[in-house]
Amino acid sequence: MTEPTISQLQPMPDDWQRALAVVAHPDDLEYGCSAAIASWTDAGREVAYVLATRGEAGIGTLDPAECGPLREREQRASAAVVGVSAVEFLDHADGVIEYGPALRRDIAAAIRRHRPELVITLNHRDTWGGTYWNTPDHVAVGRATLDAAGDAGNRWIFPELVGQGLEPWDGVRWVAVAGSSTPTHAVDATDGLERAVRSLLEHRAYIEALTDEDPETYARGFLTQNAEDTGKRFGGRPAVAFELFPRG
């Protein structure tokens, strides 16, 4: 039995103060979420970033030892554009992240440190919809984040974290998945879209390795088209879509 198509997207909940975004690589958030994040920080909400890797395997013409620090710098600059100053890296290996207890533990520890009500991650499914295959890193981190939201609140899962001063946090109310082919909710991107473009442009080295197109033309075209497409299901306003998984 097929699930019904969701024709209109609902507004994201706004009765929260702290969010934590957990993704695999530098640029993962900038390719879809940053307009929403800009609007949230404008409203006085706290958002922190945790990245599983430094993206060191992301540019074929750069050795990982050079690429990792470069992409870390780009990510920190990118986050600052949308009002995010807390950016952490877990130092898992780019391209070969393994789903399992070690990854769940690291993400659960981050959730306990930051104590968010909303956790954001990227598409954890095998494809982006249809036959466009997702990467193993996105799948592993997205799935582990959904699981770690529960792990963070259980004293007896990863009990060693308590010894590190990280008491359980059972306050995650939602996990929001960006890039889902079955979104349920959205955030108005009108006010944040211009900063989202500038935020993505901070990943200039990555973009220049990815395409011969002018970086600003590329970034503006990609983000504007996605926001307008989402807006067709959100009252005609440009928007960022999420699949929302309530907890509790």
Automatic annotation (TrEMBL):
It comes from the Bacteria. GO terms for molecular function: hydrolase activity, acting on carbon-nitrogen (but not peptide) bonds, in linear amides. Keywords: Zinc. InterPro entries: GlcNAc_PI_deacetylase-related, LmbE-like_dom_sf. SUPFAM superfamilies: LmbE-like (SSF102588). GO terms for biological process: glycoside metabolic process. This is LmbE family N-acetylglucosaminyl deacetylase. It comes from Streptomyces griseomycini. The lineage of its organism: Bacteria, Bacillati, Actinomycetota, Actinomycetes, Kitasatosporales.
